[in-house]
From TrEMBL:
Record-annotated Acyl-CoA dehydrogenase/oxidase N-terminal domain positions: 6-118
Protein name: Alkylation response protein AidB-like acyl-CoA dehydrogenase
Cofactor: FAD
A single MF term (Gene Ontology): flavin adenine dinucleotide binding
SUPFAM superfamilies linked: Acyl-CoA dehydrogenase C-terminal domain-like, Acyl-CoA dehydrogenase NM domain-like
Domain Acyl-CoA oxidase/dehydrogenase middle per the UniProt entry, residue ranges: 123-220
Keywords annotated in UniProt: FAD, Flavoprotein, Oxidoreductase
Transmembrane segments: none
InterPro entries associated with the record: Acyl-CoA_DH_CS, Acyl-CoA_Oxase/DH_mid-dom, Acyl-CoA_Oxase/DH_mid-dom_sf, AcylCo_DH-like_C, AcylCo_DH/oxidase_C, AcylCoA_DH/ox_N, AcylCoA_DH/ox_N_sf, AcylCoA_DH/oxidase_NM_dom_sf
Lineage per the UniProt record: Bacteria, Bacillati, Actinomycetota, Actinomycetes, Micromonosporales
Recorded family membership: Belongs to the acyl-CoA dehydrogenase family.
Length: 382
């Protein structure tokens, strides 16, 4: 196996790295502190084609692959995870369901603006009372003539309340299966639909410049043709979407972990203690060496999962491994980077302060670490 990047992937990585350092970095702290959504950054990412990386040119995409998206996420997260998760959720959770399961009419209506970055979409799966138990969906949709009538709520939904949010895809119980279980389907709910209410943004520990809301649906009516994919296949559809998304989150986590290494090296060369740079002390050298070790192995894990996915091979276990390992590494590296920075690491003006706050959600979002272990164990036959 050859993990070296080809020329196109290497050029993309360098382009996004430059963008992150020159455009994202100067405004990251301000958006984070003020809890504001970085519309101008998102607009420029759209112009670069980042939202269209894994989609074919016939839909307005860049004709790349999912691995290209992962490379972009890693480079963005080395600077700012809020921007990285905005792109990740917009593509893997917002656009991908419509691309994978939408009808030609749905794709023609929604994909152009989503792929260009002019609009973003949310992914309405998690509910306030279910969390990891996504199969415990309580939101319901009843077919009334030629409309679905939706009632229920969703929690922690990214990109669901921005000025450029165009829709949210929502999982809902639409009936009962022959075996007595819940029939779960997916329905497109456009922004502004009567009965669809977006609550004020959460006050979050991290990802402070990303957009996250609770959503409620009260007799929310949408056309019957807004059903996404086959009726009753909604849960299976989103399991596939989440498998892919875990590779993307792993890439994001690797970016954060590598950002911690970058910042620690810079600080260790600049900070003096007892008459010399702290990077001259073996205690600091070993901390940073271990951080680089963890970031490197986590990168190999998501490279492997992505390669399997693109080859059409089974990748569920490898995606779970990559997500579990990379998120753990992100938390570990953020803790060590904060320690290396001492008191300055506790200040929000330093990037590692943001990294420390942003890292923990990576062990929770898009499948907790416990869920990843369940997936791995089941795939091993346990």
């Amino acid at each position: 196996m050859d993990f070296r990047l080809n020329e196109e992937h290497e050029a993309l990585r360098q382009s996004v790295r430059d963008f992150a350092r020159e455009v994202v970095a100067p405004v990251a702290a301000e958006h984070y502190e003020q809890h504001t959504f970085p519309y101008e950054v998102v607009r420029q990412m759209g112009k670069m084609g980042l939202f269209g990386l894994p989609f074919p040119e016939e839909h307005g995409g860049m004709g790349g692959d999912y691995f290209a998206l992962c490379l972009a996420l890693e480079e963005l997260a080395r600077i700012d995870s809020s921007v990285a998760i905005t792109l990740e959720a917009a593509v893997s959770l917002g656009i991908m369901p419509i691309y994978r399961f939408g009808t030609p009419a749905q794709q023609a209506q929604w994909l152009p603006k989503l792929i260009s970055g002019e609009a973003v979409a949310g992914f309405g799966l998690t509910e306030p009372g279910t969390g990891s138990d996504a199969g415990g969906t309580q939101t319901r949709a009843v077919l009334d003539g030629d409309h679905w009538v939706i009632n229920g709520s969703k929690a922690f939904i990214t990109n669901s309340g921005t000025d450029i949010t165009s829709l949210v895809t929502v999982t809902a119980v639409t009936g009962t299966r022959p075996d007595g279980g819940k029939e779960i389907s997916t329905i497109i709910v456009p922004s502004g639909t009567p009965g669809f209410t977006v609550a004020p943004g959460y006050s979050k520990v991290g990802w402070c410049a990303s957009d996250t809301h609770e959503l409620t649906f009260e007799d929310c009516r949408v056309p019957a043709e807004n059903l996404l994919g086959e009726r009753g296949r909604g849960f299976a559809q989103f399991l596939r979407i989440l498998d892919e998304g875990r590779i993307a989150i792993a890439a994001l986590a690797v970016g954060l972990a590598q950002g911690c290494v970058d910042e620690s090296i810079r600080y260790a060369k600049e900070r003096h203690a007892f008459g010399q740079p702290i990077g001259n002390y073996q205690a600091i050298q070993f901390k940073i060496a271990d951080m680089e070790l963890k970031a490197h192995t986590a990168r190999l894990a998501y490279y492997d999962a992505a390669a399997r996915m693109l080859a059409g091979a089974d990748f569920k276990r490898q995606a779970a491994i990559a997500k579990l390992h990379a998120s753990t590494v992100a938390v570990d590296n953020a803790r060590e980077a904060t320690q290396i920075h001492g008191g300055y690491g506790f200040m929000n003006e330093f990037a590692v302060g943001r990294f420390w706050r942003d890292s923990k959600i990576l062990e929770i979002g898009e499948g907790t670490s416990e869920v990843q272990r369940m997936i791995i164990a089941r795939d091993l036959g346990l």
